[in-house]
Amino acid sequence: MNEIKDKVEHDLEYYQSGIRQLYMKHYQRYLLFLLAIMLVTAVGVGLSGSFVRVLLVLLFLGEAGLIVYLLRYLRAEVFDAYFQQIKTQLPDEFQKMESIEIQEDDQSYYFIGDQELFVKLKKKNSRNFPSKIRQYTLLVGDTDGLDENILEQPLQFFYYDITQIKHSASYKQERLKNANFIARQRKRRLKSAALTIFLLILFGLAFFGTL
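The chain above was modelled as a monomer; its predicted structure follows.
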């Protein structure tokens, strides 16, 4: 176990720069999204009537507050604290990862274990790092799923045996026969739909404010 711990810590230290880049990009995507929403809100403020304008100004201030809140995660000391937390947790989680099945298709990686764990990592937001642990690769990325810990735990870390990875031709079949799997997918879709509705309301307020 100590040998695994030393090798995991070596991997994390060796690839710290790459991990930091993924960490920064995660929050930068949120910031760019909020800035786009703020731009729409600002246009609505300029074109709307007095009552809607007040609502949009309050909304704009809330969005500005979210940006200030997100900026704290880009501070070096916050990343360093997060990185030290990962160095503590990841060696203990390594053994659990040995039982996780990994599949991939052209766009994503899928991690499935004991019908209880399902994590989808998009390839464009992930990086593979060759590990000091023989036959293993360290995959680091973020998920497009919604989670209450997504701000505090932005990245997912997985060790997997590259010789065991499967192409996800059987992915849809697994999805159809696994009821728990379907339920988790449905829950994720509902969360995504709720977020989409919220954004549509924001755009609607800006649109009707121009009438």
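Helices lie at 2-14, 16-47, 50-71, 76-97, 171-177, 179-208.
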